[in-house]
């Protein structure tokens, strides 16, 4: 409700008129739930259109005039009651409508109108006591009201009471403008009950006695008992009704008229406080209660405006009418603007009665009030003119000449100047007030400007401040745009504050001044004045003024001050909170947050969030409060652990209270812990064949291609080459194609992994964590487990994790699971859990309530490339959490017994693979595909057929093949023997013996096996399933084997060669496995071109401890049997299994298969294998014996070969690798399939044939001849 400054000033300083009524009149008006003064008040704004003549015979047109009619028994409320009025004037108003304001590209929602501030301003101005330094609150006249049923002497009693009030010296409340006041007589006639003829006769007698202009006959209560709808009038009085307070009949305290009397009355002046519950008056009023109303402290000089002074009413009559018989009305303006008790007013009044009331007011103003004011103006002007410029005494003249103190300065003394009631200064002030109240602002300014110089010379600072204030208002009301009015008002405020110590009048002047400053868009100066009036003595006043100052900063354009707006709005909210106005404090903090939001000012945001949460909690706005505290917990990066514990406790208590008072079937979304967006991974494999967390590790692109290749090979082997092959996805994540829904069989477990993050510095404890889902039945019905219904268990079984502890700042992957029980579709929407604040030992803290809530999962597919005219970012649909459930499929569960995670390089261990069909359908055509065939050996009795498929290296020569040797993959496909009918029924199990050989290189190696199987039922969809098995092996070094081949020059029937072998135990004593002692058992040669000779040179004790080496020589000769691929030489006395049996043959065969070379007839390409036994001892544990197999590949004569070798030594030293950017350079020398130089040098073998012993006597012949022949072979 915007009020123009001129209207606000006119409403603040209306002409005041008193009213005295008889009890019968009040009884007639009470039928309408009104008093007589209240009945008139809504119609006191009149379009007069009348002229007021000034002493210069100039007519001033009064267009609109507002008067105030007040019962003479009305008194301003006592401090405690005034404080209650002010508080309720603010608390009774609320912000209903907001508007958007754009400042610095920031859109802010602010109230359309500040009803609470307007209501407080009106109440604040109404609860003030009238002062003797100004006459705007003094009564100009009195209305005497009787009824036709009153006895004739009633009017005389009313006149007698009026005379008593005027005769009191010093003056009491009510205060009169002068001794010469006008009187207006009203006769009230009740149409429904009174005798009209008798009333008319009584009224005629009044007219003859006092004149027709000063009398009025008012007929009311014309309404019929059952009025028609058309005759029911609007309730005009809702904003004007008053509340009454029963008071005892104690006498008024004497009111000091001047500052001199104030100083003399400090010692014995009584103070009273009204008890809010029973209304009784008690002595000893608290100065704190007076701050809101009078702003008076006992440490400063008390002024007559203080509500601690005048409390007792004046009796209307000493005999017939006692005040105790009438409810004395507290100042009727106090409750203006507040909603009444809700009762209907004016029930018996008709439109004609309202017309009569308007006529009464019009006659009162035009025919009585304005003529009376004209006379007063003439009289006062004459007095002021006759005494103008005459000093009252030599003392006054001396002060005017030698005074140095400046009004308004801090520390200026409060001078108690006494003016007589008829002093020319006061007469001139009265003249100015009359001009001002009757809208002649030009003459009013002249009067105020003239008298202020006299007050300044006399150092009468309170009179000076009043004159300055009214002079400034007069200039403002004339539309003066200069600085004079602003400076006058500034000086008035400072004088009230510093010299007079009267903050209540400074506040009034500030309220009036800022109206005009804002109208002129002087927002900076308005804010300065408002902020100056804030202090510690009144929280409510300070809050209201700070809020208005913040709006001044907001509307300021040069520059825009949105941050000052927010800062002062926070200050206003704080003072509102201290004043008990939590509703407005909450609103202020919410408005300020609009500026601080997402600016990176974490401490400011945290303070606002916490305060909003506390205020909303006190106001029972539990949902809003919990949301604010939730935001506080989500951004805890700048908070201390102690603060975070406090915030978490507050949040849990508030949310617990919300759930208790407002039970809801839906769970609240909790702020802690946070779930990383798009982090959900769904494992559609019902029974992972390895560690669960390992199964959730995303495959690298290379691993994904390996799994896809193994599945494609199995599909091709069983069903033939597919037209379009799409590999099975078992782990759905943000990196997979999730357009198609995952498919899971009923009664199989679905695992979901999400990343939880604890953003706080305290530990979080989650209890009973489980997945939230929606189950879509085939008939379209949707079932959800968020309501904890028992029927949910018949569709999906949700597995519960009892406790999860998240350390400070921790990010932790958790795995939750569920088991769908019937076919349909399960949409996983989030997870539910109980959040609590753990105690120091990590267990649940029973002092803090545990709250059940949820977190929702957010997933989205990859970004879609926008079209030309598309501005919004779009994403592909992601169905990884929307799982399709089907009825019957087989499910192969793979378990491996006695599998060792830590092994020595080359160690061979036997284990058993157990394959069990845990599904609800039979399976057939079981295939095992592995990419690590060199590490496996399966009993041939369990295999129907096997096949090895090698990925060919890129096109190039042998050297090129050596470079890519490690990148070439070999896959082995085996069809597993199931039973005689080739079916593995549901629930059946088979076992496969398996030997695993650890890789030769140290480190962690992952073995991969894929099991492919088909549904034993016909026409099933999908046609097949796969089960992946992967396991990591940690490999420790064991042996390093090196060998070099030399041609033997001995003449034999066969070509022979010597193999020099060196074996070193690479194990160190500090190894985690313990001390390893190696025993050499057997050497084998895997080649079809050579065979080992039993004549090996070695010692009997082939035992190697840590870091010990041993060398020996073995001999091999050309083989005549190409089918004999492996030959052995045992290095121990005990007989061991030959290399032609499983599992050794499978490991040898791997090397024989790779013996083929691009250059034909490579005679010296062979693999030397060494079988060994290890004895591992670790501390006091029993020794463990292991078997192993090491090998080294021999390539050429006189070329040393070492294994394990340095990975960096893949190229010959004399070979320079060509830079390849887009694949191999086919023009380079690497692409020429030519033999290497070392092969050409050893292409020929030769031997000399001669006798071993030759006898020759050199004494007989100085030289001898002996037959010698040579043999050369390609």
TrEMBL record:
CC per GO annotation: TRAPPIII protein complex
Organism domain of life:
Eukaryota
Chain ranges of the TPPC8 third Ig-like domain? 1033-1193
Q: Which InterPro entries match?
A: Ig_TPPC8_1st, Ig_TPPC8_2nd, Ig_TPPC8_3rd, TRAPP_III_complex_Trs85
| Pfam families given in the database record | Ig_TPPC8_1st (PF24545), Ig_TPPC8_2nd (PF24544), Ig_TPPC8_3rd (PF24546), TRAPPC-Trs85 (PF12739)
Domain TPPC8 second Ig-like: residue ranges: 906-1026
**The TPPC8 first Ig-like domain, residue ranges:** 702-904
In Swiss-Prot or TrEMBL terms, this protein is called: Trafficking protein particle complex subunit 8
Q: Which organism is it from?
A: Menopon gallinae
């Amino acid at each position: 409700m915007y009020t123009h400054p001129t209207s606000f000033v006119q409403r603040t300083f209306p002409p005041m008129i008193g009213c005295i009524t008889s009890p019968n009149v009040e009884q007639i008006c009470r039928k309408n739930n009104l008093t007589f003064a209240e009945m008139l008040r809504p119609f006191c704004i009149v379009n007069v259109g009348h002229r007021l003549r000034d002493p210069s015979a100039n007519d001033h047109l009064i267009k609109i005039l507002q008067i105030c009619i007040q019962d003479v028994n009305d008194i301003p409320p006592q401090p405690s009651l005034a404080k209650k009025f002010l508080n309720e004037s603010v608390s009774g108003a609320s912000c209903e409508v907001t508007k958007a304001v754009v400042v610095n590209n920031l859109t802010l929602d602010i109230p359309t109108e500040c009803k609470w501030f307007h209501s407080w301003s009106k109440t604040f101005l109404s609860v003030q006591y009238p002062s003797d330094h100004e006459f705007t609150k003094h009564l100009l006249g009195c209305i005497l009201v009787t009824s036709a049923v009153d006895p004739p002497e009633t009017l005389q009693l009313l006149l007698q009471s009026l005379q008593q009030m005027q005769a009191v010296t010093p003056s009491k409340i009510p205060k009169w403008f002068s001794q010469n006041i006008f009187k207006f007589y009203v006769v009230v006639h009740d149409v429904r009950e009174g005798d009209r003829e008798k009333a008319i006769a009584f009224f005629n007698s009044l007219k003859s006695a006092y004149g027709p202009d000063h009398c009025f006959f008012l007929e009311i209560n014309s309404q019929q008992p059952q009025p028609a709808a058309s005759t029911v009038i609007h309730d005009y009085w809702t904003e004007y009704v008053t509340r009454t307070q029963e008071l005892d009949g104690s006498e008024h305290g004497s009111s000091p008229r001047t500052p001199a009397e104030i100083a003399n009355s400090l010692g014995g002046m009584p103070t009273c406080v009204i008890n809010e519950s029973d209304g009784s008056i008690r002595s000893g009023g608290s100065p704190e209660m007076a701050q809101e109303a009078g702003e008076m402290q006992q440490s400063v000089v008390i002024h007559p405006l203080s509500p601690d002074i005048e409390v007792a009413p004046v009796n209307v009559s000493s005999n017939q009418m006692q005040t105790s018989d009438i409810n004395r009305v507290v100042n009727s303006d106090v409750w203006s603007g507040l909603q009444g008790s809700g009762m209907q007013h004016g029930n018996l009044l008709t439109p004609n009665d309202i017309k009569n009331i308007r006529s009464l007011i019009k006659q009162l103003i035009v025919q009585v009030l304005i003529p009376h004011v004209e006379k007063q103006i003439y009289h006062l002007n004459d007095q002021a003119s006759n005494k103008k410029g005459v000093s009252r005494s030599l003392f006054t003249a001396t002060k005017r000449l030698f005074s140095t103190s400046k009004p308004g300065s801090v520390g200026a003394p409060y001078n108690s100047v006494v003016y007589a009631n008829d002093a020319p200064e006061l007469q001139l002030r009265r003249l100015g007030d009359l001009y001002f109240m009757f809208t002649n602002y030009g003459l009013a300014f002249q009067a105020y400007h003239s008298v202020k110089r006299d007050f300044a010379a006399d150092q009468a600072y309170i009179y000076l401040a009043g004159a300055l204030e009214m002079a400034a208002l007069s200039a403002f009301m004339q539309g003066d745009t200069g600085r004079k009015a602003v400076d006058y008002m500034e000086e008035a405020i400072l004088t009230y504050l510093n010299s007079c110590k009267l903050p209540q009048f400074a506040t009034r002047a500030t309220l009036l001044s800022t109206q005009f400053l804002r109208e002129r868009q002087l927002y900076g100066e308005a804010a300065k004045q408002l902020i100056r009036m804030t202090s510690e003595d009144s929280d409510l006043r300070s809050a209201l003024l700070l809020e208005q100052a913040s709006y001044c900063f907001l509307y300021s354009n040069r520059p825009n001050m949105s941050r000052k707006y927010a800062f002062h709005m926070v200050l206003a909210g704080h003072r509102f909170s201290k004043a008990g106005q939590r509703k407005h404090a909450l609103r202020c903090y919410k408005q300020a947050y609009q500026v601080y939001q997402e600016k990176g000012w974490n401490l400011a945001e945290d303070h606002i969030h916490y305060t909003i949460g506390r205020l909303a909690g006190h106001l029972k706005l539990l949902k809003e409060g919990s949301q604010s505290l939730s935001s506080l917990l989500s951004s805890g990066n700048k908070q201390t652990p102690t603060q975070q514990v406090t915030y978490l406790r507050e949040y849990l208590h508030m949310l617990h209270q919300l759930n208790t008072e407002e039970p809801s079937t839906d769970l609240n979304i909790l702020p802690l812990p946070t779930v990383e967006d798009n982090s959900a991974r769904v494992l559609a494999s019902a029974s992972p064949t390895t560690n669960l967390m390992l199964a959730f590790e995303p495959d690298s692109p290379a691993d994904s291609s390996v799994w896809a290749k193994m599945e494609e090979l199995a599909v091709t082997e069983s069903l033939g080459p597919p037209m379009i092959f799409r590999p099975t996805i078992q782990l759905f994540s943000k990196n997979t194609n999730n357009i198609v829904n995952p498919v899971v069989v009923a009664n199989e477990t679905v695992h979901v992994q999400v990343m939880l993050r604890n953003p706080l510095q305290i530990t979080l404890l989650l209890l009973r964590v489980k997945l939230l889902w929606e189950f879509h039945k085939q008939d379209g019905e949707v079932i959800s487990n968020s309501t904890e219904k028992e029927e949910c268990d018949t569709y999906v079984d949700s597995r519960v994790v009892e406790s999860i502890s998240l350390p400070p700042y921790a990010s932790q992957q958790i795995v939750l699971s569920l088991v769908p029980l019937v076919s349909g579709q399960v949409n996983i929407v989030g997870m539910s859990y109980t959040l609590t604040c753990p105690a120091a030992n990590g267990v649940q803290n029973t002092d803090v309530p545990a709250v059940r809530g949820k977190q929702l999962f957010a997933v989205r597919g990859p970004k879609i490339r926008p079209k030309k005219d598309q501005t919004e970012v779009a994403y592909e649909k992601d169905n990884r959490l929307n799982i399709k459930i089907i009825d019957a499929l087989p499910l192969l569960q793979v378990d491996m017994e006695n599998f060792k995670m830590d092994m020595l390089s080359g160690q061979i261990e036997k284990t058993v693979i157990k394959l069990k069909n845990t599904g609800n359908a039979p399976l057939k055509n079981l295939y095992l595909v592995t990419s690590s065939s060199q590490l496996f050996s399966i009993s041939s009795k369990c295999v129907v057929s096997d096949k090895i498929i090698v990925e060919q290296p890129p096109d190039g020569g042998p050297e090129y093949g050596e470079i890519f040797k490690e990148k070439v993959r070999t896959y082995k496909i085996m069809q597993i023997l199931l039973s005689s009918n080739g079916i593995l029924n549901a629930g059946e199990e088979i076992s496969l013996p398996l030997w695993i050989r650890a890789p030769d290189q140290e480190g962690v190696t992952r073995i991969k096996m894929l099991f492919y199987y088909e549904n034993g039922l016909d026409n099933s969809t999908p046609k097949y399933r796969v089960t992946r098995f992967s396991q990591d092996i940690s490999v420790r070094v064991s042996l390093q084997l090196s060998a070099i081949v030399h041609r033997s020059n001995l003449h034999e029937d066969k070509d022979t060669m010597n193999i020099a072998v060196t074996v070193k135990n690479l194990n160190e004593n500090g190894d985690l496995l313990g001390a390893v002692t190696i025993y050499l058992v057997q050497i084998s040669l895997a080649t079809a071109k050579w065979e080992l000779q039993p004549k090996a040179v070695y010692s009997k004790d082939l035992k190697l401890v840590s870091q010990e080496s041993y060398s020996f020589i073995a001999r091999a000769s050309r083989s005549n049997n190409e089918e004999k691929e492996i030959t052995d030489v045992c290095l121990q006395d005990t007989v061991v299994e030959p290399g032609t049996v499983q599992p050794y043959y499978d490991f040898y065969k791997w090397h024989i298969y790779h013996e083929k070379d691009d250059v034909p007839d490579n005679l010296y390409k062979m693999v030397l294998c060494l079988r060994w036994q290890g004895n591992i001892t670790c501390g006091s544990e029993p020794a463990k014996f292991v078997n192993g197999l090491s090998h080294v590949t021999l390539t050429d004569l006189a070329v040393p070969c070492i294994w394990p070798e340095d990975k960096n030594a893949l190229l010959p030293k004399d070979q320079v690798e060509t830079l390849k950017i887009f694949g191999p350079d086919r023009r380079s020398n690497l692409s020429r399939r030519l033999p290497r130089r070392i092969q050409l040098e050893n292409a020929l073998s030769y031997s000399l044939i001669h006798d071993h012993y030759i006898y020759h006597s050199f004494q007989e012949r100085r030289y001898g001849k002996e037959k010698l022949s040579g043999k050369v072979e390609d």
